[in-house]
Amino acid sequence: MISFYSIGFNNPLKKIRTLRCFLIGILNEHSKKDGNINIVFVDDEYLLKINNEFLHHDYYTDTITFPYHLKHSKVIEGDIFISYDRIKENAKLYKCSVQIELIRVIIHSILHLLEYQDKNSNNIMFKKQEKYLQDFLEQL
Description:
The chain is of the alpha/beta class. The chain has five helices and four strands.
């Protein structure tokens, strides 16, 4: 089950049911099923504390993903923390709506749960992310 939460403010996401079905479709496309996947919207300071404590990084980021399933598992589980402050800033930077940037980062994080990496030189993850974003927007 994919669940959405927010800490300290109302859930900023619209079209939750549509997005949940779309994300399950991404998992299915990779021959995976959804286990417990929690997507939690937080502020910058909350995510910075997570970044410091668990990754030993001292900088703001838009998302941190914690997979809880074994590598190559058929059932995908994990927690995704997303800074709503970063999303709003990035939406301005990339000249898009906050909702589009939210969906982009959620898709990005789901791809991390599917073992895609964004630290290497090939852009497979980013190409998939943008393709899925366009596919989702075309559904609306």
